[in-house]
Design brief:
Number of domains: 1
Radius of gyration: 15 Å
Strand order of the largest sheet: 1-2-3-4-6-5
Order of helices and strands: HHHEHEEEHHEEH
Distance between the termini: 40 Å
Shape: globular
Strand content: 25-35%
Largest sheet: 6 strands, antiparallel
Structural class: alpha+beta
Number of strands: 6
């Protein structure tokens, strides 16, 4: 069953529900990292977005620091998608980082076009290497303390 079918707009999932749906510890690792590094608290929001066959419809987890988005996480079976926006002011630093990222991240970055002055990366976090790259890109977006 799809995420949006399990948890409709009047049925907000718990952290445990999200973790159980994803089925790995990568989201928990990212959550701890963001709370300790920035410090921020996750915010659950509901989206009616039907893009990409509606896979981003439903509850998601947003992280913001001083009004600036760090990332938005979308639960999926066995993994999660992490949306990280690289703005025009961060583009050069992100380009310099790419040779140090895994092949998946390099390909995604190169294939993603510029929209509204930046790259809107929807990263499929399926392993620890991709998670490391998400953290690096967030650090470009908002410098850790």
């Amino acid at each position: 069953m799809e995420w949006s079918e399990l948890y409709h707009n009047e049925n907000q999932p718990t952290d445990k529900d999200i973790g159980g749906f994803i089925g790995n510890d990568l989201l928990q690792e990212l959550n701890i990292y963001l709370q300790e590094t920035y410090p921020v608290q996750p915010k659950m929001t509901y989206s009616n977005c039907s893009m990409d066959e509606g896979i981003w419809k439903g509850w998601n987890v947003k992280y913001q620091k001083s009004g600036k988005a760090l990332c938005t996480l979308y639960p999926r079976h066995g993994f999660f998608d992490a949306s990280v926006v690289i703005g025009a002011t961060e583009m050069t630093e992100a380009e310099l980082l790419m040779p140090f990222c895994c092949e998946y991240t390099q390909n995604l970055f190169n294939e993603t076009g510029v929209h509204m002055g930046g790259k809107w990366l929807m990263m499929r976090v399926t392993d620890a290497d991709i998670l490391k790259d998400v953290k690096k890109l967030i650090a470009i977006r908002v410098q850790p303390k």
